[in-house]
Amino acid sequence: MARLTPLPLVAVLLAGFAHAGELTIQPKPFFTEQAFSASALPSEATLIRLDTKVWPDFEFTQLAAHGSKVAAGAVLVAFDAAAITKKLDDASRACATNELSLAQAELDLAILTESTPLKLDSVRRAARNAKEENQYFCATRRNATQEHAAHALLRAKESLGNQQEELRQLTKMYAADELTEETEEIILVRQRDAVGHAEFALRMEQLDHDRTLKVTLPREAETLAASERDTTLALTKAEAELPRLLILQKLQLEALKTACSRDKETLANLEADRKLFEIKAPAAGWFYHGPIEDGRWTTGELIKSLLPGGKAPVKRAFATFIPATAKLSLTAFVDAASARALAPGLKGYATLSGREDLELPLQLTLLASTPEPDGRYRANLDVTWPEGLLIAPGTPAEVTLISYDKPAAIAVPTKALSFAPGGWTVEVKLADGKTERRLVKRGRVAKDTTEILSGLEAGQVILTP
């Protein structure tokens, strides 16, 4: 019993036969091309950036218009310098003050260096003398003073006794006479006075003796002992303190030197930053807002601050000066697939939007071997610009490069290829009218056509969908 083929499958097969065709293989020119966008950028440009040392605030007061043509020496950018001028004045005064303080500290150190040994010697002498005085007092002078006081008291007593004895003898001698002469009376009066003086001297000597033993010598002993103790302590302190003060003075001097050096550095940095507050064109050329670097012209959010009153970023390019002598070339960033198909030396052409009638000859001069952070590869192209055509930096262009060119190649429609476990195949028509799947080696692909490197020969017929 015959089986009926389902209607949908019959329709598919009929549709396949209806659209199937035959193609006779013939060698013909085959090439591949790579098309991508590029930008016209200068071969040389000066990035305008504020490589500041310390100053963070730059407010625009003047900014040349974007794309303006400027003469050599023209002001491109100017900033408000009022705040940094005040800071410079303060820093200059601080430097002058620190230099005077440093000079005074150097003088103080020189004097202290010379006087410290002298002060130590003086304290050592005082301690030595106090010790010797106390030792001598304890060993000799105290006893000698006591003996001297006792001897003085004894002499006073002896003197009184002698004066009393002489008065007694004179009185006895003159009493023998019945009549005392006037001269004898005078002598007796004088002797009585001498006795009185001797009695007074004895009383005074007794007081001195007692005070010497009970007050003066004990007090002097205390004073000398205290002096020895105090000068010993002063010496201990001086021997530790004076060298330390000298070290501290040296450290303070070094600190002043460091502070002075830092203030000078700050002043120098401010002076260097002050020069950034007006930027002039180094030559005739063009002024562009936004940086042109590494083959890219970028603006982004930065462009919003590029106006009077806005703040310029520091340590980051925000504008570009392009000299009039700079040559424009094309720069592109291609994807990995295009990069693999390109090589320096390839030729092609570029077109500009609005002037598609112009095909500008160009050549690939540089292709980066490593990708940018976004995964694309930088490509530099040398282009021949026609006379009289004004091209502004940043102008976009469409580039076409012939990446592969073979004058006589075997190629088939890409849709004729099928992939099987053994590789790529095409369906070949045999002489008896039958067909077979034949393995081929695929080459380059150009749009809807694929190069065949082996497996097919000229004159063979293949079936195409």
Structure description:
This protein is α+β, with helices and mostly antiparallel strands and 465 residues long. Among the domains are: 45-74 and 281-325, no CATH class; 84-273, Helix Hairpins (Orthogonal Bundle), CATH 1.10.287. Helices cover 44% and strands 29% of the residues. The protein has 4 helices and 22 strands. The chain has helices at residues 7-19, 82-175, 182-274, 336-341; strands at residues 21-24, 28-42, 46-48, 60-63, 68-70, 75-79, 278-280, 285-289, 292-293, 296-297, 319-323, 328-334, 347-352, 355-367, 377-383, 396-409, 411-413, 418-420, 423-429, 435-446, 449-454, 461-464. The strands form 5 sheets. Strands 1, 17, 18, 19, 20, 21 and 22 form a 7-stranded antiparallel β-sheet that branches. It has a 6-stranded antiparallel β-barrel with strand order 2-12-15-14-13-16. Helix 2 packs antiparallel against helix 3. The radius of gyration is 60 Å and the shape is rod-shaped. The protein starts with 6 loop residues before the first helix and ends with a strand. The relative contact order is 0.19. Residues 1-19 have low confidence and may be disordered.
